[in-house]
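It would be a great kindness if you could assist me with a short task in structural biology. The matter concerns a single protein, recorded as an amino acid sequence and a row of C-alpha cells. The record follows directly beneath this note:
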Amino acid sequence: MRTTFYNGVKPILTLSAALLFSSAFAQDRFDIATFARPSGWKSDQRPTVWTFSTTDNKTGGYCVLGLYQSTDSKGDPLKDFEADWQELISKPLNVSDPPQKSEGSPKDGFHVCVGAGTYVQNNATGLAILTNLSDGTRSMSIVTLTNDTTYLADYRKFYSQLKLAGSSTQQSANAKPVAGTLPVLSGSFDDYTYNLPPGWKSEKQNGSVVLRGPDGNSVLTILPMRRGKGNLEADMQSIFWEVFDGWQVDRRNIDHHIYARGVSANGWAYYRQELGISKTDNPDMEIYGFVFLADVAGKEAVIAGTYVNSTDLLAERSQEDWQLFYHSLDFKGYQKPKINPLSKALLGSWRVGSYSGMVTYDFAANGHYASGSAFSTSNRVDDYTIKETTTSFVGDGTWVLKGSELTLTNAKTGKVQTAKVRIFDEREFTDEWITNLGLLQTSIVDGNLYEVVLRIVKN
C-alpha cells in the first residue's frame, strides 16, 4: 500500500526570489522520473510519493500533483491503470463511479492511460485525474486533484517536462553492458590526461581504461587513439557501431539521437554522438550509449560512454559528471593555439529561459559584459483578472577567459563569479545545428554544481 498525499490540508509556500529563479532550470529526479518542479508550489517528498501543491487564498482554488514511486507492472497497462485508480483515487476519495478514460500518446516508451472523475471533499466538488504510464514491466502514476480547472495548464506543463527511464533499464547487474568488452583499437591511450569526477574509480581492462561512476550505472571507456581520416562526423558513422558491436538503435527509444560538436579551450575539435540502443539479440536490454571523438593532431581520441537511466551520472542534461570530465580532458604533447578559440566564440548575445524565467549574457570584444535575469509570477485577482509580477536583476562589468575558466567581475559591487565554459553546436530532432554556451558553476542558492546552457542570439 502506498501512502496517499491528500488529507484536506492545502498549504502555501513562499520562495525567495533566488530559489524561485533557480528552479526554472533545475531538474529533479524521483525513482525512474526526471522532472521540473512547478514554480512556486510547495514540495513534499516522501519515500513513495513526491507531491506539489498550491492554494489561492482569495479564490479558494487549489491544486495538488502527486508523483508516485513506480511499482512492478501487472503485465498489462490497462490493469496497471485500474489498480492505481482503485488504490489512489477510488478508495481514499470514496469515488465509486468509473473514470472517464482515454489513451495518450506513448511517452519515453511507456503506454499512457488517463482517467478522470469527480470527488467531494468538505462539501465541495473536485476533479481527480490519474495518469498512468506503463511499459509492461514498471508502472508509474501521477495524481492531480483540483477544484479549479485553470490549474490544469500547470499539470500539462509538468507532464510535458517529465522524462522516464525505460523499465528494461532496470535490469540486474548481469544484464548491464560490460565496458571492458568494447573492442581494442590500434594505438595508445597513454596520451590522455583527465581528472576523475567525484566518487569515480579507474581500472585498466582489456587494453582500455574503464572509469566507473559511483551510481553503478555510468561507465566511461577510454580507448587507444587511432588514425583519423580528417572528418570526425564521417568517421563516427563507422566507429560508433564498431564500438557498440552487437547493439542496434533502440526501437522503443528511436527519438534519442543527440549530436554535438565543438572546439575545446585547448584547440582540439570534437564530435559526440549519443543514441538509445538495445542489444541485437536481446532488445529488452536498453541503454544510452555515446562515442566522443577528438581530433588530436591527425589522430583520433576515442571515448565511449554508457549509462542505464536518464537520471544517471552521465545523463548530460541532468547531471554534471560528463562536463567535469570534459573540462579536465587534454592530451599530452598537444600544441595549444596561441589564441584561445573560445575567446572569439564567446562574443555576442546569449539567452535562455521560458515565460517564467530568463537569463541573458552579452560579451563584448573589449572585455566588458552585461547580464540580466528575470522571473515572473502570476496571481489570480478575480475570475477575469490575473496579476503578473516580474522581478529582474541586471549587472555589468569585465570578463576574462583563461583556458575554459571565465571570470566575471561586477563593475558596481566588485563581486567575482567564475564558471567553466564550453561552446558547442547541438542538434537533436532536426538537421539544424544550434550554438550553445554552457556555464558550469556553483549555485549561490544551495552550493551545488550545475550548468546553465544558453543559446546564441542570431542577428
